[in-house]
Amino acid sequence: MVRRGRHLIGGAVIAAAVLLLGACGVTNTQQARSGTDDGGPFYTADDEITLYVPFAAGDTSDRFSRLFAEHFTAELEGNPSIVIQNVPGGAQKEGMNAYERSEHNGLNMAMSSGGLISSSHFDPEGIQFDLAGYQPVVAFGGGMILYGPGDTGPLDQLATSDRPVFYGGMELNASEAVRVFALEQLGLPRFEPLMGYDGGGAITTAVMRGELTLGNSTSSHYAQNVVPLAEQGEITPHMVQGYVRDGEVVRDPAFPDLPTMPEAYAMLTGQEPSGTGWEAYTAITATQTNLLRTYWMHGDAPEAARTAAADAAAAVAADPAFLEEAATLLAADPEPLVGAELEASVGQIQDLSPETVQWVEDYLDSRR
Which domain of life, per UniProt (predicted)? Predict the structure, then answer.
């Protein structure tokens, strides 16, 4: 059952959509934790966890979070209820700020995108939280694919064309900057990035009109909306941003025949990618794709709560029923990460060297 309301948090009015999962019915208030102190489960069926989602109700990430919450509470020892608190706005910063202000008692969790993880390092304005102080519980990946009009031909033909190459994106932030950098390195003729498009749908439309030579979208958007156009020959897929495994960029499992951007660079230039720019590409790709939807708990929440949450999340990530439902929702496999693999992906961005951070900041300044 879903109840909608409006709440005032930190002086800002936010839209709230409440989903209660468990055996206790629906409520808008957070009850005191009633877990035992005698070695029993931290959570009980009388407890209520609030999951902060920095997207509007009905958004894909909101719908995914509700699906995750349903399976998570079933796996979580004690089977507490879960309330979804939607806090959209401020490029997701409002939601994470609200989460930071919540009690660090194990009864609050948050979801963030990979883009927010990157921007928290390079665009700190308005941020009141520090992800380094949070514990990642589980992450679900999602790839990025770059494509052009059907008449552009294969990638090597695009690179040797005498036509200018216009690439479209939404905003030149850290996540977009590494894609722009990689495309620059390919040596595409008269390459020019054009920012300001309002989402994957607008970018696809611009590609179809011939306004853009290259566009990008998530694997989910591409599978749901662009694949039919590609099958009709109206769109040509060129490359993927890739996933990061063991510190290396690898192909997207959803599109195993498409090269990664580093592979495309090697193919077109005959050189292996190296240097600070490509190091930044790898680190930010780890957040953009590996950590597309990441779920967090306060790092100073009770250890028993953090352990119980991690165990339950690992069970969800291995549950075939959940993975099948998630793949149906996203039109792509969710690519879960837990444990050491999750920590490694988070570490890619948190452990960036000062030189790499400075490189990204300088590159963004040079492009603005």
Answer: Bacteria
| Helix extents (H) in the chain | 60-75, 93-101, 114-122, 155-160, 174-185, 200-209, 219-221, 227-231, 261-269, 276-285, 303-317, 320-330, 339-350, 354-367
Q: How many other CB atoms are there within 10 angstroms of residue 132's CB atom?
A: 10
Q: Which of 245, 264, 287 is the last residue of a domain?
A: 287
Tell me, yes or no, whether 278 and 307 share the same domain. no
What pTM value is reported for the model? 0.85
Nearest to 238 by CA among 142, 165, 288: 165
Q: Are residues 80 and 65 in the same domain?
A: yes
Which domain-ending residue is among 236, 268, 287?
Answer: 287
Whether residues 148 and 222 fall in one domain: yes
pLDDT attached to residue 3: 32
Question: For residue 114, which phi and psi values (nearest 5 degrees)?
Answer: -65, -35
d(CA 46, CA 56): 27
Whether residue 169 contacts residue 362, with contact meaning beta carbons closer than 8 Å, is answered with no
What residues in the chain have per-residue pLDDT under 70? 1-39
Using DSSP's 3-state secondary structure scheme, residue 70 falls into helix
